[in-house]
Amino acid sequence: MPVSLLSFAAAGPPAGDETARFVLRNDPPRQARLPLAERYRRALERRDVVFSSDHGRCLIDTVVDRQARDAYRCFGVAADQKRLLALVAWDDRRSPVDVRAAIRSAVTRAMNREFGRQAWIGEDNPTDGLDRDGQGSGAKRVRNRTQFDYLVDRYLPAQTGQVWTVTRGFVNHAPQPA
Questions:
Q1: Looking at residue 176, what is its pLDDT?
Q2: Which of 6, 84, 108, 174 has the highest count of CB atoms within 10 angstroms of its CB?
């Protein structure tokens, strides 16, 4: 049963120099770059999303409630002002990228339903491939029980914002600004 720590960034403009040229590895012909360049320009125009306590609670409730329907097991979730972390496992042959996409889709639908339609979770970088472990850039595989225990017992509970773990339930932190 693979276990991965999945991360999702809040929507907002890409980090870095906004005047820099949009460049792809193995630079394709200009015509092939135009759709990606347009997506990049649109991303620069978006405003930053900041998750409040209510947003964090909705994000966590969605990830936890969708376990049975999306066929994964959730061991911990943390939502701060700029990101969502989910420690999940699954029994089938799906890749971490597929599980992450299912969670991202469910979270986006729930946030649109509760707080209005907008881009809540940032787009995955279209130029990112898989890392050396065959995982997407937002999925890090948990290697052993020691690492798993550290993530559940220390790393996730230490996050700011809203936190839920399978062993502790909701961990109280200072409320986030709205």
A1: 52
A2: 84
Helix, strand, coil % over all residues of the chain, rounded to 5: 35, 20, 45
Q: Is the dihedral of CA 165, 169, 175, 176 positive or negative?
A: positive
Length of the chain in residues, anyone? 178
- Summary count for the chain: helices (H), strands (E): 5, 6
Q: Are 6 and 96 within 8 A, CB to CB?
A: yes
Report the alpha-carbon distance of residue 147 to residue 21 in Å, rounded: 39
Tokens, residue 90: 């699954």
Asked if 86 and 5 touch (Cβ cutoff 8 Å), the reply is: yes
What are residue 144's phi and psi, to 5 degrees?
A: -155, 175
Which residue's structure tokens are 């759709």? 35
Residue 90 burial (CB < 10 Å; 0-12/13-18/19+)? buried
Q: Nearest Cα to 163, choosing from 74, 70, 49, 68?
A: 74
Task: Decide if pLDDT at 125 tops 60.
Answer: no
H-only helix segments in the chain: 30-45, 53-65, 67-70, 96-115, 145-150
Q: Of residues 62 and 139, which shows the higher confidence score?
A: 62
How is residue 162 annotated by DSSP? Answer: E
